[in-house]
Amino acid sequence: QVQLAESGGGVVQAGGSLRLSCAASGATFLNMGWFRRAPGKERELVAQIRTIRASTDYTDSVKGRFTISRDNAKNTLYLQMNSLKPEDTAVYYCAATSGVSTVYIYWGQGTQVIVSS
């Protein structure tokens, strides 16, 4: 059974930092990523990291501020978020693909991030 368990969300002032963690188990994942859903908005891919060469992608609004990383030995995914802005307020979800596809099919429960101005 695949499990993705996020932690690390919370309330932070603008300009502050948070690090999200996602403990993964139960399968081999080709790609892993962080998505977010802000109030009244569609879910968006924030960042993803591939197994192949550990290449990464970021949505434009977080480039230079967020860093995604993956510790394969611990089966844990991270998202370091710096210089947080109120518009980063959202529920953040850890997600993963299967071992042979780039489609995200596994999802965590989500962790709330609130950035106060």
Walk me through the structure.
The strands form two sheets. Strands 2, 4, 5, 6, 9, 10 and 11 form a seven-stranded mixed sheet that branches. A four-stranded antiparallel sheet has the order 1-3-8-7, with no helix packed on it. Strand 9 (90-97) and strand 10 form a beta hairpin. By secondary structure, it is mainly beta. 32% of the residues are buried. The N and C termini lie far apart (40 Å). The radius of gyration is 13 Å and the shape is globular. The protein has strands at residues 3-7, 10-13, 18-25, 31-37, 44-50, 56-58, 66-71, 76-81, 90-97, 104-107, 111-116. The protein is 0% helix and 55% strand.
Relevant terms:
four-stranded antiparallel β-sheet, seven-stranded mixed β-sheet, mainly beta, 117 residues, single chain, 0% helix
Fold topology:
Blueprint: E1 3-7, E2 10-13, E3 18-25, E4 31-37, E5 44-50, E6 56-58, E7 66-71, E8 76-81, E9 90-97, E10 104-107, E11 111-116
How far apart are the termini? 40 Å
Low-confidence stretches: none
- What is the count of β-strands? 11
Q: Kindly state the mean pLDDT as a whole number?
A: 96
Question: Short summary of the structure?
Answer:
The protein has 117 residues and is mainly β.
